[in-house]
From TrEMBL:
Keywords: 4Fe-4S, Chaperone, Cytoplasm, Heme, Iron, Iron-sulfur, Metal-binding, S-adenosyl-L-methionine
Database matches in Pfam families: Radical_SAM
InterPro entries: Aldolase_TIM (IPR013785), Coproporphyrinogen-III_oxidase (IPR034505), Elp3/MiaA/NifB-like_rSAM (IPR006638), HemW-like (IPR004559), rSAM (IPR007197), rSAM_sf (IPR058240)
UniProt organism field: Streptomyces lancefieldiae
Highest taxon, organism lineage: Bacteria
Xref: Gene3D superfamilies: Aldolase class I
Family of this protein: Belongs to the anaerobic coproporphyrinogen-III oxidase family. HemW subfamily.
Main location as per UniProt: cytoplasm
Record-annotated Radical SAM core domain positions: 24-270
Compartments where located: Cytoplasm
PANTHER family: COPROPORPHYRINIGEN III OXIDASE, RADICAL S-ADENOSYL METHIONINE DOMAIN-CONTAINING PROTEIN 1, MITOCHONDRIAL
Role: Probably acts as a heme chaperone, transferring heme to an unknown acceptor. Binds one molecule of heme per monomer, possibly covalently. Binds 1 [4Fe-4S] cluster. The cluster is coordinated with 3 cysteines and an exchangeable S-adenosyl-L-methionine.
Name used for this protein in its record: Heme chaperone HemW
Length: 410
């Protein structure tokens, strides 16, 4: 969740949505994203809306404390219940992200989940995920989460090489994420993800292969692999600008992606989104699929984004301002936008093209259809699905996904 917030119209003090957003809501899946903005240290590449204790000291008072954060976030869950009214939907997915959610006590994460269950109810097969820093959990912590209803966990591994972790300012030691997978399995977690990053300055092909081998050897059923994006304003961007570390180019990113695809496929993983692989349909991250398919989700927490029925809004960024708004009985929303039909069409193309199932050709305008025919002739789209009316990326197309999708929506 990037820290910069877009512009938009004001959010009503009570958070009310237009009637059009709630029309037909019972037929749409609903998910919750819970943002925990706290980190022990700031990673050099991170541009997310996160805060260390030092950064919060003196700026938010008791309102910004992580000691009472679960209570504060529960207030927003209750607000969501009021805003969504008598909608009978049970929550299909819950995803706790950050930041480092596992800096909170395990009981606090369970308390936040319980608030959703109490206010909305959870579907019998609900997917409940938390992100976790490998150094911030132990077997007892994981057991509490599992007993409290969490059934999926995502560990930030990033790399198996110490010098790569050092460039990223990651504090865990090599080998700890793999141990966490075993501990999570022992606690009863059904689904475990490892996050990896490729293209870090100073990383070699062999370093990347070693990270993939270590991740696969740990036995997760899901792997996310992302190219490092150097965001302006981050410590890493400043280091690159000063010439302290080299910038990794796009050709290296492409080579690393191909290495990942080869290793993951050989290990029984199938891609289902450009940066995500799973060993089975059940292993796919359903919560992320809500985002990619334009479903409804409520994002609770500082800077969190939400979408319900074509209305998208975002909360104030600072934990103190966020808690203060809720304490005053007001929505913490900072701004919102009401999407037009054309906005939603374009977003469907942008997001669904990245999925294994692709995007219906019927969503494309005349120029986009012409571009899709060119992409097909250039080997960027698969022939079989195209003949059946869908644009589905080939492996080469996945390497050039951003360029392909720009052509299809222009």
């Amino acid at each position: 969740m990037p820290s910069a917030l877009p512009d938009g119209e004001p959010v009503p003090a009570d958070g009310a949505l237009p009637a059009s957003a709630l029309a037909g809501a019972a037929d749409r899946p609903l998910g919750f994203y819970l943002h925990v903005p706290y980190c022990a240290t700031r990673c050099g590449y991170c541009d997310f809306n996160t805060y260390t204790a030092t950064e919060l000291r003196g700026t938010g008072g008791v309102l910004a404390s992580r000691d009472n954060y679960a209570e504060t976030l529960t207030d927003e869950v209750r607000l969501a219940r009021k805003v969504l009214g008598d909608d009978p939907r049970e929550v299909r997915t819950v995803f706790v992200g950050g930041g480092t959610p596992t800096l909170l006590a395990a009981d606090d994460l369970v308390r936040m989940l319980r608030a959703i269950r109490d206010e909305f109810g959870l579907a019998a097969d609900a997917e409940v995920t938390t992100e976790a820093n490998p150094e911030s959990v132990d077997p007892a912590y994981l057991a509490t989460l599992r007993e409290g209803g969490f059934n999926r966990i995502s560990f930030g591994m990033q790399s198996a090489r110490q010098h790569v972790l050092k460039i990223l300012d990651r504090t865990h030691t090599p080998g700890r994420p793999e141990a966490c997978v075993a501990e999570a399995r022992a606690a009863g977690f059904e689904h475990v993800n490892l996050d990896l990053i490729y293209g870090t300055p100073g990383e070699s092909d062999d370093d990347w292969r070693a990270s993939l081998d270590a991740a696969l050897g740990a036995g997760p059923d899901h792997v996310s692999a992302y190219a490092l994006i150097v965001e302006e304003g981050t410590q890493l961007a400043r280091r690159i600008r000063r010439g302290e570390v080299p910038m990794t180019d796009d050709d290296v990113h492409a080579d690393r992606y191909l290495i990942a695809e080869e290793a993951l496929s050989a290990a029984g993983f199938d891609w289902y989104e450009v940066s995500n692989w799973a060993t089975s349909e059940a292993g796919r991250c359903l919560h992320n699929e809500l985002y990619w398919r334009g479903a409804d989700w409520w994002g609770a927490g500082p800077g969190a984004h939400s979408h319900v029925g074509g209305v998208r809004w975002w909360n104030v960024k600072h934990p103190g301002a966020y808690a203060g708004a809720l304490a005053a009985g007001k929505s913490p929303g900072a701004g919102r936008e009401i999407l037009t039909d054309e906005d939603r069409r374009v977003e469907r193309v942008l997001l669904e093209l990245r999925l294994r199932e692709g995007v219906p050709l019927s969503l494309l305008r005349e120029e986009g259809l012409a571009a899709s025919r060119r992409a097909l002739s250039e080997g960027l789209l698969q022939e079989g699905p195209y003949e059946e009316g869908r644009a589905v990326l080939t492996l080469r197309g996945r390497l050039l996904a951003d360029a392909v999708v720009r052509d299809l929506v222009d």
